[in-house]
Amino acid sequence: MPSAATPAPCYFLQFSFYSSPLGLPFFFTATTIATSGRGGLVAAFTGRWELLDASCIARNCGRAVSSPPSLLPFVSAPRALHASTDTTIMRFLFNIRNLHSPTAQCTSKCEEDEKKRFCWLRFDKRFFGSAAAVIERNASFSTLNSDDVSYFKDLLGEKSVVEDEDVLLTANTDWMRKYKGSSKLLLQPKSTHEVSQILKYCNSRCLPVVPQGGNTGLVGGSVPVFDEVIINIGSMNNIISLDKVSGILVCEAGCILENLISFLDNHGFVMPLDLGAKGSCQIGGNVSTNAGGLRLVRYGSLHGSVLGLEAVLANGDVLDMLGTLRKDNTGYDLKQLFIGSEGSLGIVTKVSILTPPKLSSVNLAFLACKDYFSCQKLLVEAKRRLGDILSAFEFLDNQSMDLVLNHLEGVRNPLPSSMHNFYVLIETTGSDESYDKEKLEAFLLRAMEGGLISDGVLSQDINQASSFWRIREGLPEALMKAGPVYKYDLSIPVEKMYDLVEEMRIRLGQTAKVVAYGHLGDSNLHLNISAPQYDDKILAQIEPYVYEWTSKHRGSISAEHGLGLMKANHISYSKSPETVRLMGSIKKLLDPNGILNPYKVLPQSLKSCH
Ligand code: FAD
Ligand code: MLT
Ligand code: ZN
């Protein structure tokens, strides 16, 4: 899985100004902006030109700067640039359109000399992979200062308060390297008490925070948008108990999913959740995103498997909802609010989860279908004929296969004789080896005779099964390697699902590749548009079309990844105004200052901290 992050392009403006004798604010007009031959930027304000040198910009920014070919077409000028004489952080209004980087953001720094003050201004707005999605930092949030850092060091110890630039760069950057924040602080609490104290303090100071797990989220929810303090509970990774009669596992929320899978395997149980990011994602992150994954068709969603939670609210209150009962009808089931709330209502610190027993017989078939209709019919048949041994039903199209073959090392097509249009993975899990295998083989024979399958292979051992899964699970990585990608995670009725893919191919023509795969057994399409570059013209072809199409078919614009930053403003495509308003009220009740994962999940209009 890629981990090292490259810095986002960062664009700077510099201007100088003199103190106003009357103490009135100064107004500057940005008339034009262009790149200089040396890679710096030239900015003109009120007719004065300043030439900025790229290395000088880099020094002040503290990270590398790459210049766009030209900013000219991207800046609508003139715009008022408003600076007040007594503040170093100037408010300024810029309307920058079509800026290539979805994450443009800079820092500010001021230097004094005898006559004038030079300021490096930051673009205090963020751009992200969504049309018209430009947001501003909530000005009522405080900015981190040295007293805050000292407080955290006293509370957590020096080692758990991270200011190291390299570590921060990674923590500020999401898995896709599409979203980048500029947090100056990463906190690594070791106990619920520490999480509680951190939040209590941040709430009293109005300091915004981002809860972060394994940082494998795909909607920009796990990284700061601006300077939010990052709280990662990866150090809270103890397994607390496993009840070997009921299969109920209780653990801290920082446990890595794969470690839980191995632990349970050793004790004869399985995690009811499995996904491609298992090596990095944390159970707290899984619960907070209500992750779906590869086995939801068998074990259902985390809303069913999670029996209890411990969560810390913004004000530091610890909610002990860590039940281990399958049945408990005493009032509102509040833990459900935290499952899928993406860190916007509290920090999950402990989880209790029901884990099914490990069964001895697992079979995996890798199949080819000539068209989407056959995949769909195959699913109906699989549900009917395999019944309770069916444990996964995944699909990918030939563009997906092409992509993994081209971008992942050591991957080969198990059905190489010709390129098929669609591929399906069917997994069964049961307790009787010969019966299960016979059942699957009979099903496959029937499907082959009925023309639903054009070719197929049954895995002979665990290594072959892993190589089949690698094709499906490696898709997000292959897409990343292929370059910029617009990702959509949609719930759409199975029979309509692939119509959208075909329509997108027609809409986009040769400009981008449309790659489709997903959890067909759960009606969950992963629509990926792999483009040569992030480009607003391409984006305009995709959004809002994809959302409108999904909404028209009564689908969901987030099946399993969440809304994060990417879709916070688009929630209304899947939820009614009344529902969104109620969500806003719940947010306000649990986090009145709005410090928990601001700008995410809910529309920007619902921000707070007054
Ligand atoms: P992060 O990415 O760190 O955070 C995700 C969100 O949860 C953020 O909003 C964050 O603020 C919040 N959060 C994290 N920890 C906590 C906590 N303890 N308390 C409160 N809030 C918290 N997702 C699926 O659903 N199904 C898949 O099949 C799937 N496959 C994937 C495959 C790959 C290769 C990758 C890279 C991602 C995949 N994902 C999938 C997306 C992602 O892995 C999941 O959303 C996962 O659950 C995120 O867990 P995390 O620990 O990495 O959380
Ligand atoms: C998957 O199913 O592979 C994940 O949800 C990730 C993705 O959508 O790319
Ligand atoms: Zn998925």
Automatic annotation (TrEMBL):
<feature type="domain" description="FAD-binding PCMH-type">
    <location>
        <begin position="179"/>
        <end position="358"/>
    </location>
</feature>
<dbReference type="Pfam" id="PF02913">
    <property type="entry name" value="FAD-oxidase_C"/>
</dbReference>
<keyword id="KW-0285">Flavoprotein</keyword>
<dbReference type="InterPro" id="IPR016164">
    <property type="entry name" value="FAD-linked_Oxase-like_C"/>
</dbReference>
<dbReference type="InterPro" id="IPR016171">
    <property type="entry name" value="Vanillyl_alc_oxidase_C-sub2"/>
</dbReference>
<keyword id="KW-0274">FAD</keyword>
<dbReference type="InterPro" id="IPR016167">
    <property type="entry name" value="FAD-bd_PCMH_sub1"/>
</dbReference>
<comment type="similarity">
    <text>Belongs to the FAD-binding oxidoreductase/transferase type 4 family.</text>
</comment>
<protein>
    <recommendedName>
        <fullName>FAD-binding PCMH-type domain-containing protein</fullName>
    </recommendedName>
</protein>
<dbReference type="InterPro" id="IPR006094">
    <property type="entry name" value="Oxid_FAD_bind_N"/>
</dbReference>
<dbReference type="InterPro" id="IPR016169">
    <property type="entry name" value="FAD-bd_PCMH_sub2"/>
</dbReference>
<dbReference type="InterPro" id="IPR004113">
    <property type="entry name" value="FAD-bd_oxidored_4_C"/>
</dbReference>
<dbReference type="InterPro" id="IPR016166">
    <property type="entry name" value="FAD-bd_PCMH"/>
</dbReference>
<dbReference type="InterPro" id="IPR036318">
    <property type="entry name" value="FAD-bd_PCMH-like_sf"/>
</dbReference>
<dbReference type="Pfam" id="PF01565">
    <property type="entry name" value="FAD_binding_4"/>
</dbReference>
<keyword id="KW-0560">Oxidoreductase</keyword>
<dbReference type="InterPro" id="IPR051264">
    <property type="entry name" value="FAD-oxidored/transferase_4"/>
</dbReference>
